[in-house]
Amino acid sequence: MKNLKIAIQKSGRLNEKSVQLLKNCGLDFENYKSSLITTVNNFNLEILFLRDDDIPGYVAQGIADLGIVGENVIDESQEKVIYLQRLGFGRCTLKIGIPKDSDIKDLQDLQGKAIATTYPNILQEFLAEHNLSAEIQQISGSVEIAPGLGLSDAICDIVSTGGTLKSNGLKPFADVRRSEAILIGREGLAENPILCELLQRVQSVLRAKE
Ligand code: PRT
Ligand code: ZN
């Protein structure tokens, strides 16, 4: 049977738990840090190590069959993929943050304001849902320093402990969406026996954790 390919994050917050999940499923593989692909010795699976942002696109195009990635990244990519299983790790919330002394008091106050983010698509959707228009400043990182530099009135970024907001003189203002790591698949994979076996193993690992 043809091997399936699963894409996981190469390094970063989801890498270790993704690798651990696959190992807990009984999969035997070398976790080479330097190679981009590894073959599982005892299962019909190859593992691709990628930047998380590339995972939804690879899966949507069928270059990978499966992927493990944050919901925030899936949503922002706007790629069409199937949610197979919520994985319970990588939990965080995409939030709007504002300066501690901001005069922004309720959502309507965001009207016409400048908001810096690496998530322009999700933010645009959120604003539209609330009939707001704001100036979205798309930047590629270190979003939390934007208000202090005078680049924006607010930010929209991932928050987990809130420590980064706080240390940049910001406070959480509104929740945009929650996120956790998800096992995704390409379309047309539903009856695949390798996937069925893998999914059963993943689900029993998750049940054992409850
Ligand atoms: O290199 P690559 O592109 O693969 O990785 P990356 O740098 O884009 O992502 P990475 O590894 O930082 O995060 C991967 C995924 O983990 C994210 O897409 C989220 O789904 C999830 N996740 C969970 C988080 C966080 N928690 C998190 N705290 N992603 C980012 N953060 C950052 C956030 O951007 C902010 O700068 O941590 C900071 C805030 O953390 P606190 O604890 O100070 O609030
Ligand atoms: Zn990324």
UniProtKB/TrEMBL annotation:
Catalyzes the condensation of ATP and 5-phosphoribose 1-diphosphate to form N'-(5'-phosphoribosyl)-ATP (PR-ATP). Has a crucial role in the pathway because the rate of histidine biosynthesis seems to be controlled primarily by regulation of HisG enzymatic activity. Residues 51-202 form the ATP phosphoribosyltransferase catalytic domain. It comes from Sphingobacterium arenae. Belongs to the ATP phosphoribosyltransferase family. Long subfamily. GO terms for molecular function: ATP phosphoribosyltransferase activity. Feedback inhibited by histidine. This is ATP phosphoribosyltransferase. Keywords: Amino-acid biosynthesis, ATP-binding, Cytoplasm, Glycosyltransferase, Histidine biosynthesis, Magnesium, Metal-binding, Nucleotide-binding, Transferase. It catalyses: 1-(5-phospho-beta-D-ribosyl)-ATP + diphosphate = 5-phospho-alpha-D-ribose 1-diphosphate + ATP. The keyword Transferase applies. Its cofactor is Mg(2+). Its EC number is 2.4.2.17. Pathway: Amino-acid biosynthesis; L-histidine biosynthesis; L-histidine from 5-phospho-alpha-D-ribose 1-diphosphate: step 1/9.
